[in-house]
Amino acid sequence: MYRYFMDYDLTQYQQLENKLNELSQKGLHPVHLGKISSFQKKDAHYYYHVDFLIKKPSIPQKKAIRDMINDYDRQGFDYVGKIGKFMIFRTENKRQIPLKRKKAMNEQLSVREISTLVYFVLALIPSLYLGYHLFKQNQISHFLTNGSIILHYSILVLVLMILLRFLHKLILAHNYKKGKE
């Protein structure tokens, strides 16, 4: 039994697909899928395809997943499992996914870049406001003498971590878009 860490962003679905196909060439196939996935050695070779669920708000999630699995089943793909938002399918011979799925995925990733930019800006504004008022009202020597440095600066560290996460996702989305052009 082999275990691999499979934590990919939505924009990295092709890297995940390549990783699964690379492992399949080595004879490793998923037994359990998750952030840490288990693989077992088998003599078969499959082609894996990674997709993600794009559902309309009016449709329940379980029904959307069931419909997606049925659509892929009609195309000759077998459902393997999920890793976060990713749906994993496999087939014995290499097949192209339907063109409408590819188009929907590209549209979803374009929207993701815009929403990530909005989230980054929305997180940046309060963090700048918080930082300005924290440093304006308090002297650093005051923090050091009364021991409240951890209390005040832990909030700034948390805000910086959130900003870095949004910035990382924004860069991934931008690189994906740049690679598609």
Which whole number gives the mean pLDDT? 78
How many β strands by DSSP? 6
Give the DSSP E fraction (strand runs of 2 or more residues): 15-25%
Integer-rounded radius of gyration: 22 Å
For the terminal residues, how far apart are their CA atoms? 40 Å
User: Number of helix segments?
Assistant: 5
Strand order in the largest sheet = 1-3-2
Judged by helices, strands and strand pairing, the structural class is: alpha+beta
Apparent shape: elongated
Helix content range: 55-70%
Low-pLDDT segments, ≥5 res: none
Notable features of this structure?
single chain; 181 residues; alpha+beta; three-stranded antiparallel beta sheet; 5 helices; 58% helix
3D architecture notes:
By secondary structure, the chain is α+β, with helices and mostly antiparallel strands. The chain contains five helices and six strands. The protein has a three-stranded antiparallel β-sheet, covered by helices on one side. The chain has a three-stranded antiparallel β-sheet with strand order 4-6-5. Strand 5 and strand 6 (about 85-90) form a beta hairpin. Helix 3 runs antiparallel to helix 5 (about 150-180). The mean pLDDT is about 80.
Q: How do the helices and strands line up, and which of them pair or pack?
A:
Layout: E1 2-5, H1 13-25, E2 28-32, E3 36-41, E4 47-52, H2 61-74, E5 78-83, E6 86-91, H3 99-137, H4 140-146, H5 149-180
Antiparallel strand pairs: 1-3, 2-3, 4-6, 5-6
